[in-house]
Amino acid sequence: MPEGLERYAWLSLATALLTIALKSLAWWVTGSVGLLSDALEGLVNLAAALLALWMLRLAASPPDEAHPFGLSKAEYFAAGSEGALIVLAAAGIAATAIPRLVQPAPLETPGLGLALSALAAGVNFGAATVLIRAGRRHESITLEADGRHLMTDVWTSAGVIAGVGLVAATGWLVLDPLIALAVAVHIVWAGARLVRRSVSGLLDPSISQEERGEIAKLFVEYSRRYGVSFHAVRTRQAGARRFVTFHLLVPDAWSVAQAHRLSEEIEARIRALVPNAHLLVHIEPISHPSSYDDIALDR
Hints:
- The protein is mainly α and 299 residues long.
- It has helices at 5-30, 33-59, 74-102, 110-138, 141-170, 175-202, 209-226, 256-273; strands at 229-238, 241-250, 277-285.
- The protein has 2 domains: 5-202, Alpha-lytic protease prodomain-like (Up-down Bundle); 209-298, Cation efflux protein, cytoplasmic domain (Alpha-Beta Plaits, 2-Layer Sandwich).
- It has a 3-stranded mixed beta sheet with strand order 1-2-3, covered by helices on one side.
- The longest helix has 30 residues, at 141-170.
- It starts with a helix and ends in a 14-residue tail after the last strand.
């Protein structure tokens, strides 16, 4: 695990525990199912934080005989599992709110409950901002997903606070369960987005179009300078790691050492362009017919 990355996972865990306590207290003093729905989502945050910590440690494990490319894809399991947990939390919220539609109940001490919920939302906002920035900086989908989930929780809390405030101001008790159901729908949507992104990562997507464009320009430069050629260029990404493979076709008269020196130079340039890049280069003679047998890989 990159140095200092684990502390962000512990921040997420501490934030989840604190906000669960605050939101549960807010529900206890008010009896609001809207605030209960917010507290239940806090349990999802806790489970997600624990899973994120585990998956970050697993993803940082060095390659071994059984996993020669490492375990960086473990981060996608964390994001996907978090999305599934969100959907389960939404089901629990709906099960709690629907009976209140039939039998609305008055709220108790809403002012204190709203203050506690607002404090929890502020804590989540601060932690979410830190996690999202850290996720982008370290290219960790786990941290970024956890941060975006916490940010979703902030907006959920804002909606609940506004709704409970309206109930207290208007006396329309049915608003409380309706708001809880709206929260459930909202977090299902957030969970579906996380699952979709996780599945996409597990399907070996290529590196960004911008990075591929920079590599293509580099190949044009070396083709003009040395009369070499490139094909069978393939890229993929797994968590923070990038993988780039290509065939380098060199003049027949070149020695192995000369071709290797050029390959090393090109690899160094690509690593400077693409962070965390792992490269595999196959060198072939440019005029030999068999060097083009694999040209179909370019299609």
